[in-house]
Amino acid sequence: MYKILMIEDDMTIAKAIKDHLCKWGYETEYITDFQNVTEQVIKFEPHLVLLDVYLPYYNGFHWCSEIRRVSKVPVVFLSSAADNMNIVMAMNMGGDDFIAKPVDLNVLTAKVQAILRRTYSFQGQLNAIEHNGAILNLSDMSMICGHEKVELTKNEFRIMQILMENIGRAITREAIMERLWENDSFVDDNTLTVNVNRLRKKLDDAGLENYITTKKGVGYMVM
């Protein structure tokens, strides 16, 4: 079943579209927290996003750009501001289509079906891991903390990846070093310590203090 996420602050419109798309067999949800949109996209893992232009806090152009930093999921804009300038802006920010409001539900359904048909020969669309306000971008080996992008070295990225793939579990230093060796990067015990300390410093500077916890006698973990 394809999953569709709506980012629409008019709850009457959101509920009407959800009810309509559910009748067509799509698992459809809408968000209510408009300050943390990207995190909700990652958690829901939609196959398609319907995005309004005018939203609380930040507009749809901003959120489309943020979504594009972590995902290639198709984004369809919905807006009453359907003039050429807004349509061009939507496409430039990474949108895949634009539907003018008031929305004709039959047109919407046809466009949704066409985009899903074109897009899925199924590939995993989300290239990110999210936890507690941090997003690890698997496509460019960076972390997004709030609105700040933190560049990681290859070893820092791989350490962060293994920890975020095992949230709440302590990973031994030996297991982390073995993971790094698999990628032709020989790391001894001292080098691992240096890499972890440098990674912690970057996360602290980005506002993620104590994100990596030391489990005495075992290794490291992310809670």
Automatic annotation (TrEMBL):
Q: Name one GO cellular component term.
A: cytosol
Q: Which residues carry this modification: 4-aspartylphosphate?
A: 52
By its UniProt entry, which SMART domains does this protein fall under?
A: REC, Trans_reg_C
PROSITE patterns (UniProt xref) = OMPR_PHOB, RESPONSE_REGULATORY
Q: Which UniProt keywords apply?
A: DNA-binding, Phosphoprotein, Transcription, Transcription regulation
- One example of a Gene Ontology biological process annotation: regulation of DNA-templated transcription
**Residue span(s) of domain Response regulatory:** 3-116
Q: Can the keyword Phosphoprotein be found in this entry's annotation?
A: yes
Report the residue ranges that make up the OmpR/PhoB-type domain in this protein: 126-223
Q: Which domain of life is it from?
A: Bacteria
Would the keyword Transcription turn up in this protein's UniProt record?
yes
**What Pfam family does this protein match (any one)?**
Response_reg
CDD domains (alphabetical): REC_OmpR_NsrR-like (cd18159), trans_reg_C (cd00383)
Q: Which GO terms describe its molecular function?
A: phosphorelay response regulator activity; transcription cis-regulatory region binding
In which residue ranges does the UniProt entry place its DNA-binding region annotation?
126-223
Q: What does this protein do?
A: May play the central regulatory role in sporulation. It may be an element of the effector pathway responsible for the activation of sporulation genes in response to nutritional stress. Spo0A may act in concert with spo0H (a sigma factor) to control the expression of some genes that are critical to the sporulation process.
| Protein name listed in UniProt | Stage 0 sporulation protein A homolog
Q: Which species is the source of this protein?
A: Lachnoclostridium phytofermentans (strain ATCC 700394 / DSM 18823 / ISDg) (Clostridium phytofermentans)
